Amino acid sequence: MSDPSVRSRSESTEGTPPPHEAGEQGGHRPPRKRQRVRLSCLECRRRKLSCDREFPCSRCLQSGTPERCEFETRPGLAPPNKLGLSQAALAGFDSRLSLPITGRDSSPYYRKDSRDADRIRRLELEVAHLKSIIPKQASLDDGSTAIDRTPPDPKNGADADVGQSPADLPYQDLCLEKSEMRFVRGKEWKSRYLGPHSAYLAFQELTGLSPFMKETSAEWLRPLHVHHSISQSNHYKDRQRDAQVREKKFLEPDLALERHLPSKQETDSLVSIYLDQFEQIHRIVHIPSFRRDYAGFWDPMKPRSAAFTALVLAMMGVSSCLDEHLPQRFERLVSSSHMRAVKWIEAVSEWQDRQSQKHRRMIHYQIALVLYLGKRVNTVKKKRYWKGAGALSQDAVSVGLHREPGHVTRGLSPFDQEMRRRIWATIQSFDLQASFDHGLPTLMSSLYSDIYPPRNIDDSEFDEDSEELPPSKPPGEYTFSSYQHLSRRCLALRLELSRFLTGPNEHMDYDSVIRLTNEITQEIDMLPSWDVSGSDSAREGVPKKPLLAYTLLHIQLRQYIIPLHQPFLKLRKNNSKYLYSEIVYYNAARDMVLLDDKLAQLGIRTLNFMREDNLTLAINLCSVTMLQPRGSTNMIMINSQHTLELMEKCLAMKEDRILRCGNNEPWSYSIMCAALGLLQAHLGIKTPEKAKAASADRFVNLNYKLLAGQEPPVLSESVNEPGVLVPPPQSSAEVLDRSKSATPFQFLGQVPPPSSGGSVPAAVEVPGTPWWFPNPFDPSVAPQMQPNLIFNNPDFNLEAMGLNFDALWGGNDWEWEQA
Q1: Cα(603)–Cα(84) distance, integer angstroms
Q2: What is the pTM of this model?
């Protein structure tokens, strides 16, 4: 039975009209009844599900639609942003995603499937990984590039952790260390790097294999052998004895190598030249540590290890031809300094081939790098440069030098870690340059490397006992490691350029060439310029040469502009849009010649001996000028006189190298002489006949200087032979002091005025007569002349010195690629 009062109230309520209707009837609007705000989100209310009232709620998270999670707001409050989530919401979202799975008491949403937790964890790691590789200005200042997939070193700056969640860093570092350490075996420099698909790692992935083998050995194989502890003890003693034997053998001297050592004074001079010039760009040794060991190298009371002797010989092989001693003595076409360098290089190569590939130390890698550098400086086995650099890269990868030492190797001191970074940076530089010179791909373009760049610090700031490396200096402050530190910044671009130039030609579109040229220009503009005036002070006792590092940083980028625009030069005649390629091509070649010439004026011959820029730049300047029509008024033709001066600078630097090393590669100098004569004939400065005569005279003039420095002299043997014409006797100093005129021939058509005596007719200059050939119209020498000219006289020619004029000037078909 229901209460009558309640029933009467309900009936009266049903009979009463709604408030808005009553208001309309009464003429005034009554106050609106307040409604309770629904606490569930709109999506859960639509689906008629319970909501945990969080933002975003678990239902929306589980369905994969957190952006649809919306709540009703109270009157006067702004609705939530529908375009995205706030930072606080994102932070809460990240914290909820990071909740661990803790068994049955965990939330039902995370307990549904264990695979969801793994997927979430993987997504978190991917997010942290993507944040770490976002390019930041701090990474540019630290020298890192886009190729680095790991965060920068926290010690290098305060911005190292920008873009990463603090909660993700410890877990990420732990995962990286555990995942990368399993790829490396060994310790210190005796490590061995294994890829993720190697057979050794496949054994580790087989769960239960190791316990099964141990139990099988204990139950079935142990009774057949000696006690386990005894066998382990004997094995330990054998390994310890082997290590002692290896250490004793390492400290023993090598008498065969020591026989090649010159006097201490000469050795000190050549080693100082190497440290002074080459160690400012390619960091191979730690200069204070090397000087300490080198001081004990000459102490008769201390052992002289064979490895250090090989390192000293390899350094002298690099700097042998850079000594200031002139004039050089020659044996045929090769100087005595070059012969000694080749002898030292071959001796060290033979010693290196006998060494173990397993038990190696840091000095063995240093010897290999200095040995490769010596071969490039002395032009030894030029066709094997690319293969040699590739072998160095493969050797370095096999021991894990391309990975950050802190991630892959345990027990490495900060000193060894920094030396590994420097050695890997040197190998990268060798490999990229050899790839460019030969036009072949490099291993670096397809190699994953996460190693940090070498720090911009001097060697005096750390040593073997340092517990922590000093922070890297700003790029604007020059150190001996500035080149390697800044070269790493443009490594990604150089690798892209290498892939682009060695790839298929159909992918070389002009838009990509313009884009890459702009990126090269941007990288060049970002390079700092150091104060050259204060470069004489150095803590290592070696004068600093910032201009050397500055020049190499510029040249290694500008050199890519020339092959990028080379295919479009000949298209300029038909399409004016390729005018940009001509200008950029010419400017790049001109700037590189001026940079090399500036070093030559300061007496720095490092790049002149390491690289072949003189030959390639002279050919490039000649080719781009030859494409211009005669009488043109464009920029290249207006600067034609300046172009000739640039080619003269290239020839002067090439001649300086030949007078120190010898003309053991005569084809390059002959090509440069012929290119200069060809350009002079094209510009109308000389007739083709005079240009040919000038080119031949310049080539013979240089080789005659080598002939004058022969030991023993070869001219004296044919002085008294009848029918043989020899040049007039001159001293070596006179030959070396001879002016290098571009037109050494005397092309005079008129008869000089008669002499004061009047009885002897004046000599008439014959066009095309070399300076060392007697004038047949001179009465004083006419009776001694033979009818055959000197070039047709088989008894006097330079082919006895090893020159083949037919192959150099007349037997080469440079259009072999069209055959």
Answers
A1: 64
A2: 0.69
